[in-house]
Design a protein that fits this description.
The chain has 261 residues and is α/β, with parallel strands linked by helices. It has 6 helices and 15 strands. Bound molecules: S-adenosylmethionine (SAM).
């Protein structure tokens, strides 16, 4: 599995740390500002190989991690950043074998991590109302999950406003603008004790969600909490060891509830 085969994804990293994601094809070439790289030089080599471009640039070649892949894959809607996804997976206690509902699918970033976390015995049902985003997500997921064993995925081009067909979900995650409009549908679809997570990007959305919870759902849901995650990268350059000058300062908030019996 550590050897590159034709059709595999490969992440090329140049001497400046710039990353290029490619799909390996026999006799094909990747061209960039530092020359060409022959894919035949990569196919058959081990993960972590070193190759050189036609202009002598050294590149390291790795099989992309899921994080590297989602940051490079095609986007329809804005993705949830990996730092937030990692916290969602733990806060929402996504476990092997879980049955998870998600809306909207967006570009499929969270869906990919959910599929991984539920394992081969789990199931993810994801709704996306926009046909163009649904198509992008479907392709993104197919590309990364090719030849990998995953749980069952039911991806639907569907608006959650029209209802959730299935029931008895262990977990449900809403990443859409107005989750408070769909609390009744999601609560009905969850198992007692099941967890509901809402990913929101502004405080006004949190306010609206909490107002709806306090007015109409306080007997059906228990509020676990409202969370924000900040991540700061550090860099070492010679004697200088300090936080990176640029950071993704704001992404979003995660609001978690549990369904009462
Ligand atoms: C921010 S994106 C989701 C990104 C996704 N979590 C990811 O990581 O790639 C929000 C998506 O929700 C979809 N959406 C909004 N309202 C919806 C609804 N009522 N039913 C289904 N999908 C909806 C939008 O079309 C959009 O693609």
């Amino acid at each position: 599995m550590s050897v590159f085969n034709e059709g595999d994804l490969a992440l090329l990293i140049d001497s400046k740390g710039r990353q290029y994601l490619v799909s390996l094809k026999k006799d094909a070439t990747f061209s960039f500002h530092k020359g060409n790289v022959q894919f035949n030089d990569i196919i058959g080599k081990n993960d972590g190989a070193k190759v050189f471009s036609s202009m002598g640039e050294r590149l390291y070649v790795f099989k992309p991690t899921l994080e590297e892949y989602i940051l490079k894959m095609k986007r329809g809607a804005q993705i949830i950043y990996p730092k937030d996804i990692s916290r969602i997976i733990t806060l929402m206690d996504i476990f092997p074998g879980a049955k998870v509902f998600e809306a909207g699918t967006g570009s499929g970033a969270l869906t990919l991590y959910l599929l991984r976390a539920v394992g081969e015995t789990g199931k993810v049902i994801s709704y996306e109302k926009r046909k163009d985003f649904y198509e992008i997500a479907k392709k993104n997921i197919e590309i990364f999950m090719k030849n990998k064993n995953t749980g069952e995925l039911v991806l639907q081009n569907k608006d959650i406003a029209d209802g959730i067909e299935d029931k008895d979900f262990d977990r449900a995650i809403l990443d859409l603008t107005e989750p408070w409009l769909f609390l009744d549908k999601v609560v009905d679809a969850l198992k007692p004790g099941g967890l509901l997570g809402c990913y929101l990007t502004t405080v006004l959305q949190i306010y609206n969600l909490m107002e709806e919870f306090e007015k109409n759902f306080y007997e059906k849901l228990y509020k676990v909490g409202i969370f924000e995650l900040l991540e700061r990268k550090w860099e070492k350059d010679g004697l200088s060891l300090r936080p990176a000058l640029r950071m993704v300062a704001h992404t979003g908030f995660i609001v978690v509830f549990r369904k009462l019996a």
